[in-house]
Amino acid sequence: MTSRFSKPCTFVSQKQTETFEIDSVNMLRTIIIDTEPKSLELILKDCVGSERIKLDKTFTSMILGLKHLRKYPVDVLFVDIVLAKAWGIDFDEKIGQNIKVVFTSTQKELAIDAYDMDALDFLLKPYSFERVESTLAKIVNYFNIQISSKRLEGNENIFVRANHGLQKFVVAEILYIEALGDYVNIYLQNQKRITTRMTMKDMMDRLNKSEFIRIHRKFIVSLRKIEKIKSKAIKIAGKDIPIGNVYRKDALYLIKN
Asked: 1 burial class (0-12, 13-18, 19+ CB within 10 angstroms)?
């Protein structure tokens, strides 16, 4: 029997007149937190594999969902707004990441609350395939814009504040980056080091995620500069850099693939 969710996903523009092209460099890691996640899961899984959405986990418990969010990187969260509101107005702080949220509900009137909570979209239950597909197109469009505006390719120059001025270097020269309190040390080829005031999150947001990866709360490394991979460390320019427990699974997967 043919599933009513079996048609292929075609992302279209907001005008519904042209196919929306998808940047396939990075899959968008997605989770669902809902008391009844199955219907949404079935629709999303029809799109997994050929498009950008990768459904990692579903949770019926907000507590378990939040534990996952604190441990693993997530780009997109589908969550029942009633569950989210039960955790208070500081829900964004509780999820702990720069995640785009799509709220779901059986109550149409809660859509206003969803957008007041800075949601990317609101889905009314029961879901329709077309409506979920429209939401996915909005998600992909948002991340493509972010990628094109923030990513630094290997041959591009970057400026950071250092030594009472602006210091310029080429992104491709970066070996690894080390956190140092409110500062970061950027280690470059030719044994050069630049220290600048910046968070690791801000630094990672400026880099191309197909070329750089965070492997520890204190370290970001260039995938191209890795010389050797061990179970608990990688070697770059002769230096062993530790892989943090929280980052190990994702880091080793991305490095090896």
From this structure: exposed
Q: What are phi and psi of 113, to 5 degrees?
A: -60, -40
130: how many CB neighbours lie within 10 A of its CB?
Answer: 9
At 196-209, the pLDDT tens digits run 988 888 888 888 87
CB proximity list for 39: less than 8 A, separation 6 or greater: 125, 126, 127
Q: Where are the domains of the chain?
A: 28-150, 157-256
- What are the C-alpha distances in Å from 53 to residues 23, 127, 221, 225, 235? 11, 17, 25, 29, 32
Name the residue with tokens 């992909």: 140
Class in CATH terms, 157-256: mainly beta
pLDDT digits (tens, 9 = 90+) for 41-59: 888 777 543 467 888 899 9
Which CATH architecture does the domain made up of 28-150 adopt? 3-Layer(aba) Sandwich (3.40)
- Say if residue 255 is exposed, middle or buried (CB neighbours under 10 Å; 0-12, 13-18, 19+): middle
Cβ–Cβ < 8 Å for 197, 182: yes
- What's this model's pTM, rounded to 2 decimal places? 0.51
Question: Which residue matches tokens 């310029």?
Answer: 168
**In Å, how far from its chain's centre is CA 54?**
11
